[in-house]
Write a structure and sequence with these properties.
CATH class of the largest domain: Mainly Alpha
Number of strands: 7
Order of helices and strands: HHHHEEEHEEHHHEEHH
Strand order of the largest sheet: 1-2-3-4-5
Helix content: 55-70%
Distance between the termini: 49 Å
Radius of gyration: 23 Å
CATH architecture of the largest domain: Orthogonal Bundle
Number of helices: 10
Structural class: alpha/beta
Strand content: 5-15%
Length: about 260
């Protein structure tokens, strides 16, 4: 086991947090209004009594971006956790299905799947994770002399006061970062470098965000407004009509060919 070099860690974060911001901008640039309209619930927005094009576009866009950013930042945190563990315990990215990290401490081989927070999955997703753990354990015990394999569901934030789940351990927040680094205070230490060039990157994002709002507002007003009001019937038909499905698919394919 090696002691984690915080200067190296901060350099890693400062470099790779830029990739998160770049991915946000790239995701924003690829967005198409009709793709979002097809994926979101128009009945919900009608029930919220949204009256203006800009309000509807902003609500749609913010809901989409919130989900996207959670995924993108989750990938960053997974990479950070693997990097930290590699420096301390020599851990590696796992090749096993559904397993993100493998490392060994003394006679114990740990297999780890990394999630952002504790409330990440439904019962079928958790069952799939347990199945992946079982398969990885069988392979490890067949191909090596390791007898004690421990499965861990690591969550980058949050808490779980009952970590022993029988078939695996669930370690969240402070406990997870301490587990992979042997530093109980690491969960607070990684906060500081996350703000590297945040103001500059956020300004660039906000400028692109404003352009998308303006573009989508114009498109929405043109295609889904009548007498300066949202035509909810037309919007819901676009989103849900069986007759519109083929047309929507053809339009999406045509847009893809233009890219």
């Amino acid at each position: 086991m090696n002691k984690l070099d915080l200067d190296e860690l901060y350099k890693y974060v400062e470099v790779h947090i830029g990739e998160f911001h770049s991915a946000r901008l790239e995701s924003l640039a690829k967005l198409k209004l009709k793709d979002i309209l097809l994926r979101k619930n128009p009945y919900l927005f009608k029930a919220k009594n949204i009256l203006t094009a800009e309000s509807l576009v902003k609500t749609l866009l913010d809901a989409h971006l919130s989900s996207q950013e959670e995924t993108i930042f989750g990938e960053f945190l997974e990479g950070l956790a693997i990097y930290i563990n590699s420096r301390v315990y020599g851990g590696t990215k796992s090749a096993a299905e559904g397993i993100d990290l493998e490392f060994q401490v003394d006679e114990i081989k740990y297999i780890v799947t990394i999630k952002s927070g504790p409330n990440w999955g439904n019962s079928s997703q958790i069952a799939r994770m347990k199945d992946n753990f079982s398969k990885a354990k069988r392979i490890l015990k067949t191909n090596s002399s390791v007898l004690n394999v421990v499965a861990v569901n690591g969550c980058c934030y949050g808490r779980d006061n009952s970590p022993d789940k029988g078939e695996y351990l669930k370690l969240c927040g402070q406990n997870f970062w301490a587990f992979i680094s042997d530093d109980k205070n690491l969960y607070t230490k990684i906060i500081e470098p996350l703000s590297h060039k945040t103001e500059e990157k956020n300004q660039e994002f906000l400028e692109s965000y404003a352009q998308i709002i303006n573009k989508f507002t114009t498109e929405l007003s043109k295609d889904f407004f009548v007498d300066n009001k949202i035509n909810w019937q037309k919007l819901i038909e676009f989103n849900s009509s069986a007759d519109s499905n083929k047309k929507n698919t053809e339009e999406a394919e045509a847009d893809t060919q233009k890219i």
